[in-house]
Fold this protein.
Amino acid sequence: MGQNLVPNPSFEEIKRPQCDFTRQNENVSEYITDWYAPTPGTPDMWSAADILTQNCQQRLNQFEMQPRTGTKCLGLYTYVARTGSYREYIQVKLRQPLKKGGTYYAEMYVLLLDRRPGNSSTEVTSNTASNNLGMSFSATPIGLGTGPFGIGYILPSRPQINETEVLRETRSWVKVSACFVADDAYTYLTIGNFYADAQTRIEVVTGELPRNAAYYLIDDVLVREVFDRIPVANLGADTTLCAGQSLSVVLPDSLNTTFRWQDGTNRPRYLIRQAGVYAVTATRGACSVSDTLRITVEPAISLPSDTVLCRGEQLVLRASHPLNTFQWNTGSTASQLTVSTDGTYILTIPSRYCRLTDTIRVDFLDCPGPVPNVFTPNGDGRNETFYIDNIQVIPWQLTVYNRLGQRVYQSEAYANDWDGVNLPTGLYYYRLQNARLKRELKGWVELMR
């Protein structure tokens, strides 16, 4: 690890105490060494209670807060609800330029200023938390002499380190840190929110006064060179999988690199089988890199199995899918299709990622007609057998029982030939079964001689 390249990193070296808030046409550099405001915005210096008199506004004890270390820290706005964006920044020239291509670790500690009812200050208040508090490195100063901007304009820069989560903590200092590779001989560090309101997430902090502003304290800024390479934690772009697919993520497994996934596992290889948000942090020495991957799974479509129905019946095919676009081979685009004729029916759902289709074959057969409830095997040549229309189109099993439940007749493929031979007159109970149709008919028939 190298030395800290930030001069006055904890803001302890001052020119004179600041007792009131920084005004327009005034710069915080009038109170503190090395650091300055690079725009017409007005960041402020804050001090512990024993540094200032009781009538000074810049006492942190009125908020029951303290600097992270020492007796001083700086404060700035990252968001203010007003016409046009308002930002405040602090900037410093590093002790020496960064080495182009070198790996550096940077950190700062931040804390949302807590303004509660009853506190004496009316100047600075935060009822809003924001993200996008970042550290931008540049070869030349940014903001100074860049043109006729209004007060509190957004600096035209993109930070190498940026906190994307909303910073809501008002009691414990939060570390914002990362490693980066310097792609130039950076000499200046600027801290603040470099993103427009539309790109900044804000959350109202409950219990605060109704003023939409996010004001943060900054302390203990560190930039130093590290000699380990930055680990790799690139999970790639968000991905859509098809049902049944899996995705194997393999990260480079190099010496002294540790991994931690969202479920606590620590291997460089991770197998994804279901939808969700997956996150990993790779750490080597002081450098940690994190990435997330959102996986969406497009469910398959499933029609019923091939089926056989009796002629005159109907089958209603119903489809449901998040894409909500349906194409049947009949030309229909509805989610529901009524089938009443033989055929093969195909449903396709257009998808950018998966082949979503399924098929069903539907056949309609002549099923048995009305089952008689009486037959008369008396030798007159009429109604001599238990005769059922269409019973021989496909095989039907017939089983007949007497009133005692005893089986008296059975045929695996009934051919209208049961004549009740040797059986007495009386009621008999039948059961017709067909495996192909998955049907069973039950009833009774009277044998009369």
Remarks:
- The chain has four domains: 28-226, 239-298, 307-365, 374-447.
- Residues 139 and 186 are 4 Å apart (CA to CA).
- The domain at 374-447 is CATH 2.60.40 (Immunoglobulin-like).
- Residues 117-122 have pLDDT under 50 and may be disordered.
